[in-house]
Automatic annotation (TrEMBL), chain A:
The keyword Cell membrane applies. This is Maltose/maltodextrin transport system permease protein. It is a multi-pass membrane protein. It comes from the Bacteria. Pfam families: BPD_transp_1, DUF4896, TM_PBP2_N. It is found in: Cell membrane. Part of the ABC transporter complex MalEFGK involved in maltose/maltodextrin import. Probably responsible for the translocation of the substrate across the membrane. Residues 329-556 form the ABC transmembrane type-1 domain. Belongs to the binding-protein-dependent transport system permease family. MalFG subfamily. Its main location: membrane.
UniProtKB/TrEMBL annotation, chain B:
PANTHER family: MALTOSE-BINDING PERIPLASMIC PROTEIN (PTHR30061), MALTOSE_MALTODEXTRIN-BINDING PERIPLASMIC PROTEIN (PTHR30061:SF50). Pfam families: SBP_bac_8 (PF13416). It comes from the Bacteria. This is Sugar ABC transporter substrate-binding protein. The keyword Lipoprotein does not apply. InterPro entries: Maltose/Cyclodextrin-bd, SBP. It comes from Thermosipho affectus.
Amino acid sequence: MIRFWKFIGYVFLALFNAFSIWGALFLFSRGFYELSITFFVLVFLIDYFIFSKGAYPYRYMIPAVILLFILVLYPIAFTIKTAFTNYGTGHIMTRQEVIDRLLTDPVYTYVPDEGKNYIYEIFVRYEGINPTGDFKMLVYDENGEKYVVGNIKPIRMQAGKMILGEAHLIPLEKYEVMKENGKIITIMDGDKTYNYFYSPVDKETAINEVFFKSKIAFPILSKVEIVNNRRERLSLRFSNDGTLKLVEIKHLYRMALSEVVENGKTVAKATLINDLTNRPLLEEDGTFYDFDENGDKVPILGYISYLGGENFTKIFTDPTISGPFTKIFLWNFTYAALSVVFTFAIGLIFALVLNNNTLKGRTLYRTLLIIPWAIPAFISVLIWKNGFFNETYGVLNRFVVNGLFNKESIKWMTNPFWAKVSVLIVNTWLGFPYMMTVSLGALQSIPEELYEAASIDGASKSKRFWKITFPLLMTTIAPLLVGSFAFNFNNFVNIYLLTSGGPAIPNTSTPAGATDILISYTYKLAFEAGRGQDFGFASAISILIFFIVAGISFVNFRISGSFEEVNR
Amino acid sequence: MKKLLVSLLMILMVFSVFAVKITIWTSEAQAPILTKLGDEFKSIYGIDVEVVQVNFNDIKSKFLTAAPAGEGADIIVGAHDWVGELAANGLIEPIPVLPEKDKYLPTPLKAFTYNGKLYGIPYAFDGPALIYNKDYVENPPKTFDELIKVAKQIQEEYEGEVRGLVYDFKNFYFSSYAIFGFGGYVFGEKDGKINVKDIGLANEGAVKGLSLIKRLVDEGLLESGDNYNVMDNMFKDGQAAMIINGPWAVPGWKEAGIDFGVAPIPELEPGVKPKPFFGAQGFMVNAKSPNKLYAIEFLTKFISTKDVMYRIYLADPRVPSRKDVLPMVDDVTKAFAEFLGNYGLPMPNVPEMAGVWGAMGDALSKVLDQGIPVEQALKEAVDTILAGIK
């Protein structure tokens, strides 16, 4: 029996391996190199854990390893890679893909002025009385000679679908035909018979137009270029009256050798050339430029290219970015530190109160106090913003400041100091229940005997707190405080929803605000400035923030580690 | 292995040939009517139309994620200011031929034009006008001096219970009318081409326009706590006599039972017309979709006809962009159409617009909240925008 299950297990493993390796190869062929490598390494590790005797204990880590690779390591690798590129608005395809599109996409074709219209007729094979999608296309050239469109072979595929195909014209003589009143009504190919079905100029077949368009023209013919014996390309295009005409088309861009100046030297290189103007396209900063009639360059398509460390150097050398950096960094540090201090202090006070056995209705208080944590931050931040801090209609100004104290309204959102205060208030509100909960847990673990002994020795209440409760609490909570610091350091949601970083700092030409923290500032720089999205720059910044947070956390852990001395 | 791959591809190809379907991503306002229209199109052409309802604010970002991989909807329904970014990324397809092009108002068409090509079929447009509550205002003011006088009168008469004028004035979109009315502009234009290096947001006109809004604050009409929600709620509760808002909010006012009128935003100075931003809504085609031609056929042969455009208007009452549909609409829509069609400016659709909103929002808050001189704040905004573009 065990042998049977073992066999089943190996079958599954073999299937898993086959599937993963196929997937990895597939991803590799599509250009997703990092993800492909991730899969390969993953499969290798899993097989190693299972087959190697020495790696036996690691078997239990397999699920974690899978998650680690796919959810942690791959995104990190991808972020690092992106940080060195110009990935963003106007640069979202690979260079090869852009060239492919410029060479083959129907958008980049044109109908030459002297281009001719070709008359075409469609013949389909019937099954019983129903037409099928199996068809032959008869094309008349300008001398009235007749050709049949031969087999279609795909040139470009995308996600398993044909994007562009090519077919050649075959003289009609190769086929057997049947005529009626001099008009061809059937074409025979082998044992298949195709009947006359549709022609755009024949009114009698107009009834078949819908079938022709939906089953033949759009799904198949619109993606096919028909090459005639003069090597001209014919394709279906919408004409000005909205009908589909078979016209001669030319590709706007072609690949050819041309002389380009590179690093001061003239070299021959395969470049894209505009067929109408015969000028090579300019390739600059990861973008292909064409030239208009005035000689001005017009960007066509951009691609993802490697920039080296440009995104990183920009952070430090561009004065519009580095200018308010120190100011924002200092506030960011203050914001994270004060958030931790306030949430911890308030949470601890509540925990101490709730931990008192003589307090009645503790469950009720505890439930109420946990509410801020239970409501999604998105909602409560917006309630604070609109309901409490609104300068004219908010509860705080209207009823407390104006009504109760009869003072002038506080400029919660527009004065830099008060904006900082309001951000801290909201963050404390959101964070204290967490601190309260962990403190409550930690308080339970402090043995009662310590307090008994201390009170027998005559220690005061405050002395008992500072000498017993606090140090013992810190041994468990200190690492959580470090985590909380790191979290608040990057607490984008709170800042962005509450003040959006505002109020704006005067005398700068950057989108910096008084309550901006690094992550919200860089979000603005990367996504709300310039041309919209700049994933490359955003990645560079997030790597930088990672190092800052990691550095601070390391120091914090060192400091918090000193509390553990107490326990020894 | 290769043989297996090839045969797999063949199977996929066969499926793709027979499973013909156009997918449309649209927001909730148009989803039901488009579903109905899709069924009608199917009965004519035998092509399935699948309408997927997506939150309006997510359509562009979802499309930006899916389309580069050759996936995503064949048609998206969205705002014209997406055009620049999507076209720069090569994700939307120009409309080759728009039948009855002369039947459209020129501005919505221009809004969907980028680098000289039409990238979408506009069905509607919307933008802000002056909305007044007929209980407090009988005749809408014709000039700003008049507006200030009327608003102050109302505030005195109702002893602070009713505000004369409320609107989201720190939002560049809603305050653009004054800046552009006096001659400010976002990006300069030469021969129909937008020059993003030429920014007219700190010129004399822009300064004059922002000073006018500052005057509204100084005269005590606008409060620093005003925002869109405050305006909307106050107007529905009858606590605001005049607001500046767009046609999208009309159903809400009707539901609240407000007897309202729509009028042009008053002249800034005698003879100086306000020029608000407006946005056009339209259909765009996925450039990487294998069903491009169907999508184009669906839009040009079916959606863009007068009759269908009118039915879309009935389901989603915004200002239609076809001239021959305009006479059929109700008075409120006509009032919006008259003002916006004559004086509105389509928001620039270039990707560089991304940096303008934040910078101008900051400038408005610097002037109106922090008392920083108008010239300085606007100059800083222009510097910020330029720094982002280069």
